[in-house]
Amino acid sequence: MADDILKLVEDEEAVACRDLHRGVIISPGAIGDCVMMLPLARFMKDSLGLGGVDFIGHSEYIDFFPGRTCIDRITSLDSIEFHRLFVDHGDFDLEDNDRLIGSLGGYEWVVSFLGHGDGNYESNLIFTVHCSRGAEITLLPLEPADGFSGHTSEFHVRSFIEANSPDETDEAGEANEAGYEFDGREVLIRPHPSDVQCGRELLASVGVKAGGRIVLIHPGSGGRSKCWALENFCGLADMLAAEGASVVFVLGPAESERFDAGAMSVMEAAGTCISGLDMCQIVQILGCAEVFVGNDSGISHIAGGLGRAVVTVFGPTDPARYRPVGPGVRVFQADMAGFDGIHPKDVQDAARLVCGILDD
User: Fold this and answer.
1) Strands 73-76 and 136-139
2) pLDDT tens per residue, the chain (360 residues)?
3) What is the pTM for the complete model shown?
4) Alpha-carbon separation of residue 236 from 219, 240, 262, 267, 350 (angstroms)
5) Domain final residue, candidates 164, 186, 207
6) Which domain holds residue 220?
7) Is residue 343 part of a domain?
8) Same domain, yes or no, for 29 and 156?
């Protein structure tokens, strides 16, 4: 009995000790950037034995992370005075009980995608964090280096390893990441048990019944040049509807501003439109769809991370670097002409691809 109690106490102490060892990722990136950092967060947590990894970013993009991903807590980037870290290091000053120390202290590992290449930021960040405790601090670039042929998520992990193992390189100067292998089919996001039911209720509110062959289409992206012409998406929707699918266009703030009344009418004739959703609600309706179709966008990365069947339309960007991570992702390489106007052959090919998934 005494041995059992001692073992229980030791286990609780080990858990408490591990929970004190925490890491944080600081990112100014958009939705897709943040989702592509989840493999790094998982690698940090597993390889460093951290009790948790937090995320500081644009909270409207990442509020669904805790409880659904390996990220334990989020903090809004705007709630921390990061602008102070960009001043000349000689002019940087901290007060007793400074809010910067309170916001960034307490971590054993700090990875910042903010301020990469800025010597003042790096020096001031190190000084601030070390006012609380000794910590390992790594600044990483958002984008892969020239000549890197892999995925952005893989680049993040390998850059982290190389930055923290400078002596472990081969003759070509490449990092020897023993035991690390990038898994582009990893499920990064696991929905809450209630998410699917909430998604069904959201779709029902716009007249879409659960149980049908639902295809979600997100025709937007953070960059206009990455958006397949709306006419192509609407042509795809018409073909899928003819095959018995319920097509739902998911519109974010950018699309609501971009599309005029005429474009909205075309989409409403081709399918059902739903808008005004936050990221948690996007996750919920994605859980109800058989297939998601979208551009190289943040929503496509969420759909892929959820393990959904995803068709991502690529044109000007490189799918080898930017395709969503996930087991059900298929890349549709559209003709560049289709990013300026209607491209009937691409529409037909995309329809055959989506119908093939629906029939599997």
Assistant:
1) unpaired
2) 555 544 444 444 444 444 569 999 999 999 999 999 999 999 999 999 999 999 999 999 999 999 999 999 999 999 999 999 999 999 999 999 999 999 998 899 999 999 999 999 999 999 999 998 899 999 999 999 888 999 999 999 999 999 998 655 444 344 445 578 999 999 999 999 999 999 999 999 999 987 789 999 999 998 899 999 999 999 999 999 999 999 999 999 889 889 999 999 999 999 999 999 999 999 999 999 999 999 999 999 999 999 999 999 999 999 999 999 999 999 999 999 999 999 999 999 999 999 999 998
3) 0.92
4) 11, 6, 18, 11, 7
5) 164
6) 195-359
7) yes
8) yes
Report which residue type is found at 107.
Y
